[in-house]
Amino acid sequence: METPQFDVFEEFQTEDVMSYNHAKLIYRLTKSLGKYDEQYDILPELEFELSHGRAKPDVAICQLGKANWLRDVIRLTTPPLIAIEILSPRQALTDLTDKALDIYFPSGVRTVWVVIPQFRQVTVLTPGQQEVFTDGTLHDVQTDIQLGLSDIFKE
């Protein structure tokens, strides 16, 4: 009897595809935001179990907490103050805006930053508005965090 042939392919979610620029931006964002380490927790690639779904922002800015080195937490249930999402090479922009509108904002996230590396742009979304930054200093009024775009998009 002949064994049936199957086409085998690997399934993946596009948001899980990491690239060089994506990784470099995560590093530069967390490094630049490090000056706020005494005020906020700056947490890259941490998963959240939120009231409107599960999400893993590239960088989350949260209320300052205490680490319990004996008992770790896999998924936080308290929403971040800011969720930073970096557009991946094979990802649609609507994936990120839908996540903001359907998961982040209804779950209590105040601000979502959408980073578009190809345009060296950060769009700051709040439930009622959006503001696009392409140079200078991004100022998040919700947290008073400021970020120089030249620091993250330098060659």
Automatic annotation (TrEMBL):
Q: Which domain of life is it from?
A: Bacteria
Name of the featured protein: Uma2 family endonuclease
Entries under Pfam families matching the protein: Uma2
Listed Gene3D superfamilies? tt1808, chain A
Q: Which GO terms label this protein's molecular function in UniProt? A: endonuclease activity
Q: Could you tell me the keywords of this UniProt record? A: Endonuclease, Hydrolase, Nuclease
Domain Putative restriction endonuclease as annotated: residue spans? 18-146
Q: InterPro entries from the xrefs?
A: Nuclease_put_TT1808 (IPR012296), Restrct_endonuc-II-like (IPR011335), Uma2 (IPR008538)
Looking at the keywords, is Nuclease present? yes
